[in-house]
Known about the structure:
Elements: H1 2-21, E1 25-26, H2 29-36, E2 44-49, E3 52-59, H3 61-72, H4 77-87, E4 91-99, H5 117-130, E5 135-139, E6 142-145, E7 148-151, E8 161-167, H6 175-178, E9 181-187, E10 195-201, H7 202-208, E11 211-212
Parallel strand pairs: 1-11
Antiparallel strand pairs: 2-3, 3-4, 4-8, 5-6, 5-9, 7-8, 9-10
Amino acid sequence: xxxxxxxxxxxxxxxxxxxxxxxxxxxxxxxxxxxxxxxxxxxxxxxxxxxxxxxxxxxxxxxxxxxxxxxxxxxxxxxxxxxxxxxxxxxxxxxxxxxxxxxxxxxxxxxxxxxxxxxxxxxxxxxxxxxxxxxxxxxxxxxxxxxxxxxxxxxxxxxxxxxxxxxxxxxxxxxxxxxxxxxxxxxxxxxxxxxxxxxxxxxxxxxxxxxxxxx
Length: 215
């Protein structure tokens, strides 16, 4: 009986080690970006409406800290830990608007259903300066408006458009850090998409994130 219990305990320990080991390790922005973009990890939510594909990427604090280190030239674990502490207080998302070619939409998404230059200018101004007013974030800790949005300028070299959003706490510094669920809401006024919800289980994402190794 004792031998059987020991064998069972040994098996459980081996299983736990395997599960922990499956998380893996990453050391660069590109490594983590590849992990984030894998739909199986739960950090990308997608919807297709009216010939438009909308992808929402949740960008975890670890990714943003590594990206800032790369852009500023900072090195070392102390720098990473400091940046991570700041990034953990906010929530960052990337929106990708693209033509749904499977539904017959082709070409630059900026020109979809555009009839004249005035309409194009209005859409361009909205995506550049007013899109944050069409975005909400609901969590188990509260509701938030985007405090910052930034359209990546592609100079019409790509058919899609990428917009970054940052949400900041309203009452307590750690309210977004402690949130377990995110509901990213897009109240579209440009493409006839209506209101779209994109759900993220932050608790599960955090538990599955690979270990970050910074020398």
